[in-house]
Amino acid sequence: MPHDHHDHMSPSGHPYRPDDDHPLTYWQQMEIAVRELLIEKGVTTAQEISAQIDAMDARNPAQGAAVVARAWTDPAFRADLLQDASAATREMGFDIGPMRLIALENTADEHNVVVCTLCSCYPRNLLGLPPDWYKSRAYRSRTVKEPRKVLAEFGVTLPDTTTVRVHDSTADMRYVVIPARPAGTEGWSADALAALVTRDSMIGTGLPKSPDTA
Amino acid sequence: MTERRYMRVRADMPPGHVRTPSYLRGKVGWVERTLGPFPNPEQLAYGRNATPLPLMRIRFSMAEVWGNATDAPDDTIDAEIYSHWLEPAEAPHAP
């Protein structure tokens, strides 16, 4: 019977999951030490740190989708966004902190895709935390070398007539892609359009949803 | 269209916190736009007074960066490079 090996089975008859205990890494220890020192010295408090974590967790791709949908429906806003994306998103009411943002517009001739080869720079203050694959060595190293193959693996196959522009987020700027507005959405409201804008379409590894499937 | 201003990324390999990707060192691209000035991260990372420097967005062709290893030579890579890593250059010859 399945409950013979009591050492390995929980009372419900399922195997115990092994604990994932492991020693702290150097950088984990460093983070804890610096955090505790900052609190002990009165520079910050545990409550302030928790509040910042909550604020970051509350940011999500829907904020970026609202920005994209407005750019699709409001030509003056689109012009402002391409001129100074930080100012334009703040003007919409988003608290992006000190982030310096550049908006990259996809057209029939150009497709933009964003990567950070050095680490994991991402417009977190607008879109929230990046997907795990964005931080992977494979994505970071391959996107600058063979972007069309990487995009094809994400389901984005581009014609040779479209130039791929890879943006390596190496220093102070962060990037959001303004995908091309899907055909068949004439007359749609900004709210309805925002539902078509995916996280990946704002990284450049995806396209907006089709209006037929939304 | 205005004339392209070409720059070469210094081919140095200094130790420490450097935000110039090594795969672009020694490569020639053109200025896409100029940003900043922003504090030099190589000083900022060590808590020193950081010199404000222009930050250039340099656009490189895939042909320039990867040579014959690319199958889309006219696709591009843009990267933000601090001005002290750049020196004026001639346009690269077509491969």
TrEMBL record, chain A:
Keyword set, alphabetical order: Iron, Lyase, Metal-binding
GO terms of molecular function: nitrile hydratase activity; transition metal ion binding
Amino-acid positions noted as binding Fe(3+) in the UniProt annotation, renumbered to this chain: C116, C119, S120, C121
Protein origin, superkingdom: Bacteria
Assigned EC number: 4.2.1.84
Catalytic activity: an aliphatic primary amide = an aliphatic nitrile + H2O
Gene3D superfamilies referenced in this protein's UniProt entry, alphabetically: Nitrile hydratase alpha /Thiocyanate hydrolase gamma
Span list, region Disordered: 1-22
Domain called Nitrile hydratase alpha/Thiocyanate hydrolase gamma: residue spans: 27-205
Xref: NCBIfam families: nitrile_alph
Record-stated family: Belongs to the nitrile hydratase subunit alpha family.
Protein name per its UniProtKB record: nitrile hydratase
Native source organism of the sequence: Yoonia maricola
Lineage: Bacteria, Pseudomonadati, Pseudomonadota, Alphaproteobacteria, Rhodobacterales
Automatic annotation (TrEMBL), chain B:
InterPro entries: CN_hydtase_beta_dom_C, Elect_transpt_acc-like_dom_sf
Cross-referenced Pfam families: NHase_beta_C
Domain Nitrile hydratase beta subunit: 8-88
Protein name: Nitrile hydratase
Lineage: Bacteria, Pseudomonadati, Pseudomonadota, Alphaproteobacteria, Rhodobacterales
